[in-house]
Amino acid sequence: MSGHLRSFTRDLRAYPRQFWVLTLGIFIYVGAAALAFPFEAIYLREELGTSMTMIGVVFGLVPLSVMPFQFWGGQLTDRLGRRVIIMSSVLVGVVWFVGFAFVTQLWQVAILVALESALGWPLFQTASNAMIADLLPPERRQEGFGLTRVAMNLGVVLGPALAGLAWGWGVTYRELFLAAAAGCALMVVMMLAWIRESRPQSALEPHRHVDAHGRSGYRIVLHDRVFLSFCAVAVLAVFCFGNFGSIFAVYVTDFLGVAKAEWGYLLALNAGVVTLVQYPLVRALRHKNRMILLAVSSALLALGLGGSAFAGTLWSLVILIVVMSIGESLLAPVSSAEVSDLAPEAVRGRYMGVWTVVWNGGAALGPAFGGWAMDTYGGREAFASLLVIGLTGAAGFLALAPRWRRRRAAAKTAEVRVTA
Predict the structure, then answer these.
(1) pTM of the entire structure?
(2) Contact in structure between 101 and 177 (CB atoms under 8 Å)
């Protein structure tokens, strides 16, 4: 046991200091945001009297309408650097939560959602993912992305748990939103003081932005068939998972009768499970076929979320959320590592920008569809459909598995030849 512990500690020490600074910043940012974001859809439902269809439109279709800005974010990440994009995107988060504290009309919410979806969290995803790939060698990226996801989920454990306590103390929605804004501002100050630029030299050399066919910039990305086929399958798993943060909150509170404080604890359970199992799980499976791992992830997400259509007691939801959480533990780190390996170094920001669009596109389409389906067919019927969508994604990843195995074997052969 002590040998395993020493090996584990040695692995953690091998990561550079700036990686740990970024990971701490992610924890602060997500923890602050998690005070408020699990309750945004409930706030719109209770305080503004918004229908489920309109909640789905605001959190689903509005982000889709500003998605072209996320492509621009990938280009800016390559041109301006990772650091400035990280800090400016978190500043948008401050505006988002301060604005949410004082909105009175749905159109105001739509403007905030558009701003955040164009220049906030999606740009942070693009720039921080690119920085992680810059800082870590390929063999450590999957585990590195796993560690940052652990930090995110620790934040999601802390935020909703504190919010659940705060409901008992009688705090208002406005106070929660302002507290979240203050936490985001703290993260900006910390990044300003401690983070340094990580953009590789190749991103500054124009001739490195052109491939063997004379294509440059996003033309390289959009002609990468391996990458695009991966994205087409991955969007199904993300579509399924995208219902968890917003539509699922309303489903369990309005349709299944779970109290708001209990929903906060369920969300904390999700984050707690991911926090405990993510890094050891990803580390143990680091040499396995990533498409197989993602197929398992998509299937577990389908069972966890789609299975809630048949949930009865609170304990059945607890079991389903544990199942879903294990699937979530694999989805983000494995898929992000795959994208970073597929991306040429000089245009890594652009690849991460497209991946951000895929991730957020699936996450936006999920609640847009879910809100409409809940109003049209009912809550249980809407979530039963996620069972089909997630399992379809699992089948798609299985279809990609042989190609991934051949590509990895070819890369190892090339590596042996270079060494020789």
Answers:
(1) 0.80
(2) yes
CA angle 204, 208, 210 (to 5 degrees): 125
Residue 347 and residue 207: Cα distance in Å, rounded?
A: 11
Both tokens of 163, joined, read 């919010």
Instruction: Give the dihedral sign, CA 185/188/192/193.
Output: positive
Report the SS3 class of residue 334: helix
Would you state the structure tokens that stand for residue 72, as one six-digit string? 């621009």
- 372-383 b/e (C-beta count within 10 Å ≥ 16 → b): bbbbeeebeebb
Which domains, and CATH codes, for the chain? 16-198+221-419 (1.20.1250.20)
b/e per residue, 251-268, with b = 16+ CB within 10 A? bbbebbebebeebbbbbb
Residue range 356-400, pLDDT digits in tens: 889 888 887 887 788 888 888 888 888 899 999 999 999 999 999
Whole-angstrom distance, CA of residue 336 vs CA of residue 277: 18
- Nearest to residue 76, comparing CAs of 306, 347, 416, 395? 347
Residue pLDDT, tens place only, 156-210: 778 877 877 877 787 888 888 899 999 999 999 988 999 899 988 776 665 555 5
Question: Cα(128)–Cα(293) distance, rounded to whole angstroms?
Answer: 23
